[in-house]
Amino acid sequence: MHFEGSSSVTLLFNFWDVRGPAGMVLSVFVVLLLTMLYELLKVWKITVGKRKHSSVTHPSAPVSFSPEQSCFAPVMRCQEGSSALASSPSEISLAPTETTTATADTTATSKMSWLLHCLQTAIHILQVTLGYMLMLCVMSYNVWIFLGVIMGSVLGYFLAFPLLNHI
């Protein structure tokens, strides 16, 4: 197989049969727009991922300290079984905290995270499907379609990825 510069090609489906220069220009434009959409889907998936991670709050696990673990060397030497620090205010503030039960906020956050994950999965499915369709367009070995995919990728990246800085 080798690349051809003809204006006759069948793309993806039997009904997308290009015959003539006007059809080729229209097909290149459609492929260019599909490739730009592919780049926009990449940015959208990243945006949803950032939103998903910012909405999820993980409760921190309680930390317990004992006087044996508290060691402020050179000022104090640690001694096993020492109760010198047990009654100090700093030691009381390090007491383990009680874990809270799931509240309405954590349930809502959990549902939102799940919905965002489903949206991100749907975007991924669209992105993979569109990517394979564009690959098959390139595999038609038509120079004009290939250039449409390349230019669509360049324009899509140029227009879409600066949007990430505004998120």
From TrEMBL:
Pfam families: Ctr. Belongs to the copper transporter (Ctr) (TC 1.A.56) family. SLC31A subfamily. The chain crosses the membrane at residues 20-41, 114-135, 141-164. It is found in: Late endosome membrane; Membrane. GO terms for cellular component: late endosome membrane. It is a multi-pass membrane protein. The keyword Transport applies. This is Copper transport protein. GO terms for molecular function: copper ion transmembrane transporter activity.
